[in-house]
Amino acid sequence: MLNKKLLSLCLALAMLISFTACSGDDKKDEGAEKPESEETQGEGEEGKDAEKDDSDANEEEKDGAEVEGKEEETAEAGEVNLYTTRHYESDDALYAKFKEETGITVNVVSEKKAGALIEKIKSQGENVQADLFITADAGNLAKASKEGILEAVESEVLISNIPEKYRDVNNEWFGLTKRARVFLYSTERVSEEDLKGISYDSLVNDERWNRKVLVRASSNIYNQSLVASFIEIMGEEKTDEWVEKLVSYMARNPEGNDRDQALAIKNGEGDIAISNSYYYGKLVNDDDPESKYLGVADVVGIYFPNDDENGVHVNISGVGLIKNAPNKENAIKLMEFLSAVEQQEEFSAANYEFPVNKDAKTSDLVQSWLDNQNITELKEQDINLSKLGEHNEKAIEIMTINNWE
């Protein structure tokens, strides 16, 4: 314990020294990934053929006035600048629908990583161009809030549509979709009896899983938030014990993304993996003959640890309003639009997630996963997701001390 405490103090000092370097590392990583950016183009109006007789001239004048009126209305409606890490054609369709209903154009700037977008927004200073920030994981949203780039939103619509546990305590960000941190397992080597009653705790205490567990690196925000949730529920000491045991149960050193853990199961490197639920949807629907993940879902199943006494870890993708946003009113309109039932169903289905609006239906595919376990209600951890951001640094410290690579 003395060595852990000494290492903990050293880590805290190292984190302070390296704080300012983190932004530079994020930018370096992003540069290698060639992030994409999109801009929404304006839509032109088709003119009508003119008639040359005097009787039709009046109609032409009337039509011209109507077109001009529509153009002025669109100009008055304005735009909203959305910075996002989501990359789905279905999202673009929703933004087009929003424009059709409101006249407001959605300009999209996208990056692969939240850190790059946060830095881009910070670099704009007082002349900020961004209006909204959308990204995955409450931990990333909390970082944006900590960096001071978000501001609170007062909206009865958002409060009504989005349950409190999926909102920032100060209403600086709001969840739009949710996903669970689940188990993926080998359907060839893992039996129903093996899975019966399995929980996050039993995963690291049952010899059945010793040296059979696959998980990605500790640098990943999904794992950091999982550990942060345990800190909130169990406290630091028990979380430290859990992480220590997990590391000892790992089948290999962490590598790759969540789908790579499933691939490793197929290849016989381990029997069970920790993964976000939506990645299983990607595996199921992967029909690219050149994809290394093709066929993985044929030998890998999904299991929700719904019997865990502390509940299933659930996280979100969410949206925050940028401080001093140039199009604040339009931005809030888009936030409210995305929280409505119809959009919730489309937005969540696009990435095999769950809607946060309680009145919205879960997609058939995602619902089938619950049905296969006879789950009528997902028992989620009873915490406000703002806590994931509060405990992020301590989570990283515990993972590092216990050599979670």
Question: Can you put this structure into words, describing what you see?
Answer:
This protein is an alpha/beta fold and 405 residues long. It has 17 helices and 9 strands. Strands 1, 2, 3, 4, 5, 6, 7, 8 and 9 form a 9-stranded mixed β-sheet that branches. α3 links the parallel β1 (79-84) and β2 (105-110). α1 (2-33) crosses α17. It is globular and about 65 Å long. Mean pLDDT is 86; it is low at 16-74.
Major beta sheet summary: 9 strands, mixed
Spell the H/E element sequence.
HHEHEHEHHEHHEHHHEHEEHHEHHH
Which class best fits the helix and strand makeup?
Answer: alpha/beta
Instruction: Give the rounded overall mean pLDDT.
Output: 86
> pLDDT below 50 for ≥5 consecutive residues: which ranges?
16-74
Output the radius of gyration. Answer: 24 Å
Write down how many β-strands occur, each being a DSSP E stretch of 2 or more residues: 9
CATH homologous superfamily grouping of the domain at 179-313 and 389-401: Periplasmic binding protein-like II
N- and C-termini, Cα separation: 20 Å
**Number of helices in the DSSP assignment:** 17
Strand proportion = 5-15%
Helix content: 40-55%
Q: Which fold does the CATH topology of the domain at 179-313 and 389-401 refer to?
A: D-Maltodextrin-Binding Protein, domain 2
Shape: globular
CATH architecture of the domain at 179-313 and 389-401: 3-Layer(aba) Sandwich
* CATH class categorisation of the domain at 179-313 and 389-401: Alpha Beta
Considering the chains and any ligands shown, give keywords for the structure.
single chain, 405 residues, alpha/beta, D-Maltodextrin-Binding Protein, domain 2, nine-stranded mixed β-sheet, 17 helices, globular
